[in-house]
Amino acid sequence: MSFLRAENLTKTYGRGEAAASALAGVSFTIAQGEFVAIMGPSGSGKSTLLSVLGALNTPDQGGYFVDDLDIYALSQDQRADFRREYLGFVFQSFNLVPYLSLAENVMLPLAIKKMSRAQRWELAGEALARVGLAGKERRLPSQVSGGEQERAAVARALVNQPPILLADEPTGNLDQATSRQIMDLLIRLGSEGMTIIMVTHSPECAAYAGRLLSMRDGSLAGSDPQAAAALAACAAAAAGSA
To answer: What CATH number is given to the structural domain containing 218?
Structure first.
């Protein structure tokens, strides 16, 4: 049974001769706990699709449903509630506040919750421990490695315990060894039941996912032979670099 469903998503930027189709009737379903990678060349619509799935960019046409919620039928306030309850975001650039400790960065999504600072700190500590950063709660981002900064960003995405993690090039600024550590972490989170949707340019990273969505010119290749061949190439690349 599908947990997340996209139906004929369409998005166009500009008008007339300047119009550019970012999404051209994209449809797919994702089961709860599935790890899906989205690949495609620059301009293929990957980032637009992820922003639509993140309830940040309204499609021109089509429907987006999560847990039977019609996301774009919700009001702006209801959509904000959906993002807080259902989604965790991880970005390529980490987006950590440099003058806050790792724990304070992880606590940021909890700011609107009615709880004490001690309770927020405890939850942040649990999230950091979950990603292998126990004992580093008080360190500043500048005092840890790039891989540890990305782990802290993942912890921040997890602190509200959302069922869906949206990751946009999560290893884009990391070396190969550190990238593997982050991907191993995502695999573990997926095994714990989290639904993960990851945009990546890396075949090695895409090979960690259970399914590949391949995009070209705003359209989804789905499970056609080209997408299947791309997934096989990802697996071969990962095996060759091991």
So the answer is: 3.40.50.300
